[in-house]
Amino acid sequence: MGTVSSIDLNLLVALAALLEDRNLTRAAEKTNMSQPAMSGALARLRRHFDDELLVRDGREYRLTPLAERLLPDVRDALRQVERTLDARPGFDPAASTRTFSLVMSDYAVTVLVDPLLRRASEVAPRVGLMISPMPPDLHESDRALLQHDLLIGLTGFGFPGESKVIFRDRFVVIADPANPRLTRGALTLDDMAELPLAVATFGQPPGNLSAAERVLEGFGVPRHIQVTTVGWLPLPFVVAGTDLLAIVPERLARRVADTARVTVCEPPFGTAELIEAAWWHPTRSADPALRWLRSIVAEVAREL
Question: For the chain, how far is it from start to end, CA to CA, in angstroms?
């Protein structure tokens, strides 16, 4: 086994990515390394630990027993490095030129970005916001929370990190205005059970129900899913001109109903809530700039 001095920080980052993703291509993409460079890093790591670390298992890789034991320690080591490098003096929003990186669901972008930008421009006119969509592998590791300052998304899907609920919305049903089952703009539970549904997914692990499925299951309503979209925003446009129904957050439905030409219906299943939370990596909890960011997001969300 090699000496500790043979491992630098870049190699530690590569080791974490390889152990978490068990795939050279994905590990290279996440660490902004070329695939040959990642292959070279794996070769160095194998020499250092005198262990294969990753071994072929069909078309995939699996971790060796040593690699399984290393993974939690490697994660802890990276978190300690992050904590050390994140140490900063106090944060002055009025003077800061920092650009914050946020990951947001399309729903959060639709209802939160405009008031957030207006509020930020009042108190931190030179601060920038970089907004990214939800990554598909969010449930597999905490890397997204290490790469971004804040994530805003649905609760209930097992995202890693620390979180705080920032706002709630209720679910409504949308339908095409010409849907023959609409009676004075209303639908029944029988309509929900018999008509095809369009539902939104967010890269949740296999077997996890979508938000709409969880709502209907809670009220014992059978469901017939015909269309699945990634995120909420496509649903009104998918429903328009069809006999499909969709369950969506009310704020989003009201905002896009006229553009998509759909009818917003009172839900026949009673009150069901969508809960959005802000998520961050535990190593970022003490950063004064990110404490400010979380506070202003929560402030704006309370005023929605």
Answer: 57
